[in-house]
Design goal:
single chain; 420 residues; alpha+beta; five-stranded antiparallel β-sheet; three-stranded antiparallel β-sheet; 15 strands; 35% helix; globular
C-alpha cells in the first residue's frame, strides 16, 4: 500500500510539474498578445493583421540575482521562420562584431580597430578607399566604420567591413557560432551580381608612419551560396516601369529575428550565451561597441552629424518611432535597426538608470500593404514606426511597474559620452 501511495504521489508531482511547464510555455507565447490587447486603440489593427504584416516580436525579461547575475526569459509573438523577412541593415551588427573578432584573431602587432585600413579596387564595380574625410585625421579604420554603422547605419561603412571579412569568412564564422540559417552575402545599397559580391577587395593595414603591417589579398568565395525560394508581393518597379510579378528575394540576405536577438545578447552579455556563440572581443572592443551602440549622432564629433538630419532618436525606433523630440535623459537604447523594401526591424537592449529598468525587445513588421516593391511607397510612417514606438512604450511601461526581487545594478552600461 505504501509503495502504491508513493507511486501515486510521484505521478501527481510529475503531472503538476508538467502542467506548470505547459502553463509557462503558453504564457511565454501569449503574454505579448495579451499585453497588446490592453491597448486596442494602438494594436487592434496589428493583432488583426499580424500575419499579413508579418509582425514578429521577442521581449526578453531580465532578472538579476543577488550577485547581479542576469537571467533571461523570452516572450514571443507570432515568431515564424517560414515567413521570410529581409533583415536590411540589422546584418551590420554581426559584421561589425566579426570585423573586431578577425582583427583579434590575426593577433598582429599594431593591427587593431584604430589602425589605418586601405581598401583597394581589384575587380569590376569595386571602389578603393585611401582616406576618410569624416575621420578626425582622415584615416579609414575599422573603428570609424563601426561608429558610422552604430550611429546612423551607414551603408558604405558596412560594405568596407564586408570586404575586409569576405563572403566565405562571414558564412564560416556565423555557422561556427550556431547561426546556420544566417545568410550575409551581398553589399548594401549598390546592386551587384552574385559573382561580384563573391569577390571582395584587397585590404592593407598601415601604421601612422606609412609602414605596411598586414596585407590581405583580394578574396573570392568559390563555394555555392544557398538560394532561397522566396518571392513576395504582386509586383515591383524596374527602370521606372511596373513588373506584375512577385519580387524575387532568393539571392538576398537572411537573418532570423531570434538569431539577431542572440547576436545582440552575445555582444552585451557574453557570459549569458554558450562559449561558441560569443564573439572574440577585447574589453576595449566591448566598451567601444556599447558606447557607440547607445550614443546619439550628436554625441559624435568624428564623424560629425547635423542634428537637423540626424536627430537623437534617429535610429531608435522602439520607444520613439519617427519622433524628433527630446529623448528621455535617463533612458539609453543599445540597438541596431533596419529598414528596406518595406521591412522594418529594431533589436534593442533598453535601460532606465533612474528607475532601474532593463529589458531586451526585438521586433519586425512589413510595411508594404500594396504589395509593390522598389516603388519607395512603404507604410513606415503610418504603420511601422507608430507600431515600434507604441510597442516599445507598452513594454517599457510594463517594466516600470514590474516588481523585481533584486534591483539591477546597471553601472556596466552607464557610459561617459563626452568621449566623442
Amino acid at each position: 500500500m505504501q509503495i502504491f501511495r508513493t507511486v501515486c504521489c510521484c505521478l501527481l508531482l510529475a503531472s503538476c510539474a508538467a502542467s506548470r511547464k505547459a502553463s509557462q510555455i503558453k504564457n511565454q507565447t501569449t503574454f505579448l498578445e495579451d499585453l497588446m490587447k490592453t491597448k486596442p486603440e494602438q494594436f487592434a489593427n496589428i493583432l488583426s493583421n499580424k500575419d499579413s504584416l508579418n509582425v514578429q516580436v521577442i521581449y526578453t525579461q531580465i532578472n538579476r540575482s543577488k550577485k547581479n547575475q542576469p537571467s533571461f526569459t523570452d516572450y514571443t509573438f507570432n515568431i515564424n521562420k517560414n515567413n521570410y523577412f529581409y533583415p536590411a541593415s540589422t546584418v551590420k551588427l554581426p559584421i561589425a562584431l566579426l570585423a573586431l573578432e578577425k582583427l583579434n584573431d590575426l593577433n598582429m602587432a599594431g593591427v587593431n580597430k584604430y589602425t589605418t585600413m586601405i581598401t583597394d579596387s581589384n575587380a569590376d564595380r569595386q571602389s578603393a578607399v585611401l582616406t576618410h574625410p569624416t575621420a578626425q585625421d582622415s584615416r579609414p579604420t575599422v573603428a570609424h566604420y563601426i561608429k558610422q554603422i552604430l550611429l546612423v547605419s551607414d551603408n558604405d561603412a558596412f560594405n568596407r567591413l564586408y570586404e575586409f571579412l569576405g563572403q566565405e569568412y562571414i558564412e564560416k564564422k556565423m555557422k561556427e557560432k550556431g547561426y546556420d540559417d544566417a545568410l550575409i552575402r551581398h553589399r548594401l545599397q549598390i546592386f551587384l551580381t552574385p559573382e561580384q559580391n563573391a569577390r571582395t577587395n584587397a585590404v592593407s593595414f598601415y601604421d601612422t608612419s606609412g609602414k605596411l603591417l598586414y596585407q590581405q589579398p583580394a578574396q573570392y568565395n568559390k563555394n555555392a551560396v544557398k538560394t532561397l525560394n522566396v518571392k513576395l508581393g504582386k509586383g515591383y518597379m524596374k527602370n521606372g516601369s511596373l513588373v506584375n510579378e512577385p519580387f524575387d528575394f532568393s539571392l538576398k540576405n537572411r537573418l532570423y529575428l531570434q538569431d539577431l536577438k542572440n547576436v545582440l545578447q552575445s555582444a552585451l552579455f557574453p557570459e549569458s550565451v554558450a562559449a561558441n556563440q560569443r564573439f572574440n572581443l577585447t574589453d576595449d572592443d566591448r566598451a567601444f561597441v556599447k558606447h557607440w551602440m547607445s550614443a546619439y549622432p550628436s554625441e559624435s564629433n568624428y564623424p560629425y552629424y547635423n542634428k537637423n538630419d540626424y536627430w537623437d532618436a534617429y535610429c531608435k525606433f522602439l520607444l520613439y518611432g519617427s519622433e524628433k523630440n527630446s529623448v528621455e535623459p535617463s533612458v539609453r537604447i543599445f540597438n541596431k535597426v533596419g529598414d528596406a523594401y518595406g521591412f522594418l526591424i529594431d533589436a534593442a537592449y533598453i535601460i532606465d538608470t533612474k528607475n532601474k529598468v532593463e529589458f531586451m525587445l526585438c521586433a519586425e513588421i512589413s510595411c508594404n500593404t500594396d504589395g509593390i516593391y522598389n516603388d519607395d511607397k512603404y507604410d513606415y510612417e503610418t504603420i511601422g514606426l507608430p507600431f515600434m514606438k507604441n510597442l516599445g512604450r507598452l513594454v517599457y511601461e510594463y517594466e516600470l511597474k514590474r516588481k523585481r526581487k533584486t534591483t539591477p545594478d546597471l553601472r556596466d552600461f552607464i557610459i561617459n559620452y563626452n568621449n566623442r
